[in-house]
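Attaching the record inline, Q. Sequence:
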Amino acid sequence: MTNGPGDGHGPGDGPGAGIPAVSSAILAMSRHLEVRDVLKTIVASARELLDAEYAALGVPDDHGGFAQFVVDGVSEEQWKAIGPLPRQHGILAAMLHNATPERLADVRADPRFGGWPAAHPDMSDFIGLPVADGDEILGALFLANKKCPKPAGGCGFTAEDERLLGILAQHAAIALTNARLYERSRELTIAGERARLAHELHDAVAQKLFSLRLTAQAATALVDRDPARAKGELQQVAALAAEAADELRAAVVELRPAALDEDGLVATLRSHAQVLDRAHHAHVTFEAQGVRALPAAQEEALLRVAQEALHNALRHAGAGRVEVALVRHGQGALLRVADDGRGFDTGAVRRAGRHLGLVSMRDRASGVGGRLTVESEPGKGTAVEMEVPGG
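Structure, as predicted:
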């Protein structure tokens, strides 16, 4: 729906006008995979594209409010002073429920306008439209206060603005859907890693409890005929119980929903190595030197390769010691996972295909512009190295 006499084209407008700017905005949106980053880019791109003073994008929740609400053109101090997020009412609700565009000469004069908080910036001409994926409305995108002379009693936003914003909104829906799918995929990956850690910790605690049970039974059998030996066994029971308690505390800490984004690659790798060191007889160490932040895709690839190499060393190689190192290498980083296990014939494994996940690890490395090398000989352990260029 359009309102106000500003439906024509402004000076310099015409077929194809603004398309290069829309293309730039679409490319900017496609560079991000995090939902919050995509939302911010959509809003900033829309505001720049239409030369508006303010822009916002609200993603609705299922309770009459907004799960996310991103603004551009409002300072952080102003945003804090405005107060709680708006509810789904008035013009916002119309765009969310009816999937129709709105272009108003003065939003304050619309009968659906319900006012705004005292700290809210003053707005007049307004354009808004839904961001939709098929029949699903993902959010409402709206802009206010076109930076141009307004037609007498009319809206500064033109029909051409509405057309360009519509193109942007269509691509915004694709970018937002992709970002949601990416985050869901990452959540599933994290859940899988947590389940794997839970299995490792369960094995360690189960071993301790089994030893605890046998030792307690031995102490019971000895308490009458050899009190001194029974006392020694009971002391061992106490020690085993303390170790089991430590493992359970570790489980509580390590199975928290920690993510690479929150803790960083170094902390995540160190934590993972510590868990595996407790859960296995092998001694697992981690060392980092001079590592700087890397592109997210490279950090995730390094983490997955490290986990795969550690799994191989602990489950298949019979290693007694595994050393993990992450060091700065030019603008990027070099990961090395080395073990003293039984090793293998790299030529034979290469012919065998996907044994030990080597193909998967190489794919992860090449997928982020990196390089993976594997050195191993029967009886001489294995070293997996992955180098990434940085960003």
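The first helix runs from residue 19 to 30. Strands lie at 52-60, 66-72, 102-104, 126-133, 136-146, 283-289, 321-329, 332-339, 371-376, 382-388.

More tomorrow.
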